[in-house]
Write a structure and sequence with these properties.
The chain has about 400 residues and is mostly helical. It has 18 helices and no strands. Helix 12 packs antiparallel against helix 17, helix 15 runs antiparallel to helix 16 and helix 16 packs antiparallel against helix 18. The N terminus is likely disordered. It is a multi-pass membrane protein.
């Protein structure tokens, strides 16, 4: 009978140590005799005999616990473990935005300390950035000279501006709504609502985001820069509207589509009301369509916590109302293109956009949160269709 050494594997005691501390090998001379019929006398079959290092060994971590580690560990468990208790209807899923964040690129690639900030800015949910960006991209393309493509650098600059502005708007919203979000199934795992980030950390991050937004405005002409900064009033006050009015989605439309005004001004140096105002009104009505559909996901929770929305206001009449908003949206888009002297391909693609919007409104199941979310996300394609429409219409004009 042979005797050999068995070395004990000692786990680290804290999350921070497990994630960040480099493990090392330390021999322990505690012999134990074990009888075995295995011809390989080592606990790990692939191990080679190198004295007391014949098995793997980790040192005992001496790092202390930090509050941030505990909060982050709690967030990781809550976001990665789906709820086993479904809500009424049986087709709802738990967690923020139906737990789309689970297994996202943020969890896979970003350092663990940066993950809550990326989720606070909704970097893993690009649909909001698209909805911010499309009206400004429409406006830039519409302002291009006849027969010419829009300025590509201007499009890129406004794309980054939409990304940073959307992130800042989400941070402001979560700071003001963190108590409400904690009571809503879809939003309770957000970093501020769940306590992973403190309000001070959220405010500090907001300051950084606003500097990035300002950096995208400064290269523009003075008129556009002032127009862009003026939108901050709408951004800061929007989260309060759900407490004050039954039409917070209309106020969101005024805020999120402000880029339709800035885009034209950035190219032309001023605003042409006959082109820009119909474009802006169309985008506001578009927002009333998609965000009313989106609000139907939360209507039960909104009733419990006492916040307002067009979903609650319109109730069973929602489809009739959003049909009306869709008609106004498409009519104003046609008027804006006509006043801009755009070519016939614009109107052909406008018919395609009509079909996409009609599909949303006619097929949405407002009692099914999953279907509401699908229809909401599909609006990135409506925005893309309209951008292509303006692009080809301007090239042919």
């Amino acid at each position: 009978m042979e005797s050999f050494l068995v070395l004990s594997l000692k786990p680290s005691r804290s999350l921070s140590g497990t994630l960040f501390a480099a493990s090392s090998y330390h021999p322990i001379s505690t012999p134990t005799t074990i009888a075995t019929s295995n011809p390989n006398p080592y606990r790990y079959p692939n191990a080679r005999r190198w004295g007391s290092f014949s098995q793997r060994h980790c040192r005992r971590d001496t790092f202390s616990h930090f509050d941030f580690d505990r909060r982050l560990r709690s967030q990781i468990w809550s976001s990665s473990s789906p709820s086993t208790v479904p809500k009424k209807g049986g087709n709802q899923t738990s967690g923020d935005e139906n737990n789309k964040a689970e297994g996202s690129w943020i969890d896979l690639y970003l350092p663990i300390q940066a993950q809550p900030y990326a989720k606070l800015a909704r970097l893993d949910k690009p649909i909001g950035t698209w909805l911010f960006a499309w009206p400004s991209l429409w406006s830039i393309a519409l302002a291009a000279s006849p027969g010419r493509l829009p300025d590509i650098m201007m499009l890129i600059l406004f794309g980054f501006g939409a990304l940073f502005t959307r992130g800042a708007a989400c941070t402001i919203n979560d700071l003001l709504d963190r108590d409400i979000d904690a009571k809503v199934e879809r939003t309770k795992s957000r970093p501020l609502a769940s306590g992973v980030l403190t309000p001070f950390q959220g405010i500090s991050f907001l300051g950084f985001q606003l500097l990035l937004v300002l950096g995208t405005l400064l290269p523009l002409n003075k008129y556009s820069c002032v127009l862009g900064v003026s939108s901050w009033f709408l951004i800061f006050t929007y989260p309060l509207m759900k407490r004050l009015t039954d039409w917070p989605q209309a106020y969101l439309g005024l805020m999120i589509n402000w880029g339709a005004l800035i885009g034209w001004a950035a190219v032309k140096g001023s605003i042409d009301p006959t082109v820009v105002l119909p474009l802006y009104i169309s985008a506001v009505c578009w927002t009333l369509v998609y965000d009313t559909i989106y609000a139907h996901q939360d209507k039960e929770d909104d009733l419990k916590v006492g916040v307002k929305s067009t979903a609650l206001k319109l109730g069973d009449s929602t489809q009739k109302w959003i049909t009306g908003f869709g008609i106004v949206c498409l009519s104003c888009l046609a008027l804006s293109g006509y006043n801009a002297g755009i070519g016939w391909p614009y109107y052909a693609f406008l018919g395609v956009a009509f079909g996409q919007l009609a599909w949303q409104i006619s097929t949405v199941d407002l009692s099914c949160p999953a279907d509401c979310n699908r229809k909401f996300v599909s609006n990135k394609w409506f925005g893309a269709i309209m951008f292509i429409a303006i692009l080809f219409g301007r090239l042919s004009s």
